[in-house]
């Protein structure tokens, strides 16, 4: 793939302030990334959209607003363009209807209004890419492995290593259990059912995930495209959690452990890094810091595993 004509990004940080699910470092993660995109990777600020739930934010990172921003970015894309989505916030797993799914769960991110964006939604977005454009997703959230449905695993559980370090830093997991999401939605809809899809359709309607709007047979139509240009750098495996560090836990700073590890790698290596190199180096950073149960993963085509992260221009 050639270096992009345009470089566009959507950056989403959800701290869920003043709720029992509050995190601390997610907005900092995407603000830091915004600066790096402009200074290192040649992004124009006018092509970087920031969505956070910070006090006073005009456009909140709801499920509908995030999907609208991503859809608009893809609609603007042409061959050779480089698209980037960085999400820092809670993730979750929901019961899977797919037979033979490894964990019998599907992955999703949790926007500030709990209107989940699922692995099927990300598959549909990747399939919409114009030929020759790429979409790199960096998801610093729990259960983020496999967040693009049916994308090929390049670095996953089989590559996991442990150093048996008992000193795991104090942190908050970036996960909201399925049961908590179900209870929250039931309180909004006042419907007595354990079928989460019913709640999503009742409360969010056409803004709900494709996972809940489409019949099971139609969901299977979203196959991966051979050699597609979707690239996922996940903060952890599908069955793991990602860490959020408060100022007390992070030495005065708040950040997501994976986002911070990526920034540390980029700062230490000014030259080009492949997607595979970046994930493996970030994994090494987390291991050295004591995060034994968090293994970043890479999902993409064989070719894109060795491609330069965000097609960084040569110095």
TrEMBL record:
<dbReference type="GO" id="GO:0004197">
    <property type="term" value="F:cysteine-type endopeptidase activity"/>
</dbReference>
<dbReference type="Pfam" id="PF00656">
    <property type="entry name" value="Peptidase_C14"/>
</dbReference>
<dbReference type="GO" id="GO:0005737">
    <property type="term" value="C:cytoplasm"/>
</dbReference>
<protein>
    <submittedName>
        <fullName>METACASPASE-9</fullName>
    </submittedName>
</protein>
<dbReference type="InterPro" id="IPR029030">
    <property type="entry name" value="Caspase-like_dom_sf"/>
</dbReference>
<dbReference type="GO" id="GO:0006508">
    <property type="term" value="P:proteolysis"/>
</dbReference>
<dbReference type="InterPro" id="IPR011600">
    <property type="entry name" value="Pept_C14_caspase"/>
</dbReference>
<dbReference type="InterPro" id="IPR050452">
    <property type="entry name" value="Metacaspase"/>
</dbReference>
<comment type="similarity">
    <text>Belongs to the peptidase C14B family.</text>
</comment>
<feature type="domain" description="Peptidase C14 caspase">
    <location>
        <begin position="6"/>
        <end position="301"/>
    </location>
</feature>
């Amino acid at each position: 793939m050639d270096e992009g004509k345009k470089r566009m990004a959507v950056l989403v940080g959800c701290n869920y302030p003043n709720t029992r699910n509050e995190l601390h470092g997610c907005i900092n993660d995407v603000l830091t990334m915004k600066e790096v995109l402009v200074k290192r990777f040649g992004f124009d600020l006018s092509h970087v959209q920031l969505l956070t739930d910070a006090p006073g934010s005009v456009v909140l990172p709801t499920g509908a607003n995030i999907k609208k921003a991503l859809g608009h970015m893809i609609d603007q894309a042409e061959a050779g363009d480089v698209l980037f989505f960085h999400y820092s916030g809670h993730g979750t797993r929901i019961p899977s209807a797919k037979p033979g799914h490894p964990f019998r769960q599907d992955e999703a991110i949790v926007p500030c209004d709990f209107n989940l964006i699922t692995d099927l939604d990300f598959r549909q977005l990747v399939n919409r890419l114009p030929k020759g454009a790429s979409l790199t997703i960096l998801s610093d959230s729990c259960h983020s492995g496999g967040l693009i449905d049916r994308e090929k695993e390049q670095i996953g559980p089989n590559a996991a290593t442990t150093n048996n370090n008992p000193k795991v830093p104090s942190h908050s997991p970036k996960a909201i259990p399925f049961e908590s999401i179900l209870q929250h939605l039931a309180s909004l809809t006042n419907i007595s059912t354990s079928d989460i899809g019913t709640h999503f359709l009742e409360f969010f309607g056409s803004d709900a995930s494709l996972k809940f709007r489409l019949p099971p047979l139609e969901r299977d139509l979203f196959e991966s495209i051979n050699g597609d240009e979707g690239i996922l750098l996940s903060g952890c495996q599908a069955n793991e959690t990602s860490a959020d560090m408060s100022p007390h836990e992070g030495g005065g700073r708040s950040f997501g452990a994976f986002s911070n590890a990526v920034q540390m790698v980029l700062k230490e290596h000014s030259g080009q890094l492949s997607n595979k190199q970046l994930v493996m180096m970030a994994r090494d950073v987390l291991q050295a810091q004591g995060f034994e149960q968090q293994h970043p993963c890479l999902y993409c085509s064989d070719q894109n595993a060795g491609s330069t992260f965000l097609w960084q221009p040569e110095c």
